[in-house]
Amino acid sequence: MATACKWVIRIVGVLYLVALTLLLIGTFGLFGQERDPLAGVFLMPLGLPWVLWLDGVADAFKPWLAILAPALNLVILALACRLLRREGT
Description:
- The protein is built from three helices and no strands.
- It starts with a helix and ends with a helix.
- Helix 1 (2-28) packs antiparallel against helix 3.
- By secondary structure, the protein is mostly helical.
- It has one domain.
- Keywords: Membrane, Transmembrane, Transmembrane helix.
- The chain crosses the membrane at residues 7-31, 64-84.
């Protein structure tokens, strides 16, 4: 079970880094790409359910919180794996 947890965390972490990279490339038009207003769309599914709760937040903070939401999910996964590892011993 511990190995599966580690792999899930690694896969979600890599997906998060890829989504952040695509956000930077699309937002700033790096590597000759056109600027794309939907560059952060890949962060949304990784940040669920937290991105759905951003309605009451000021508009200036929404992009930053949407960027950090997948990191919160990674922390929750790591804590759940640690808890499962403790219960298994």
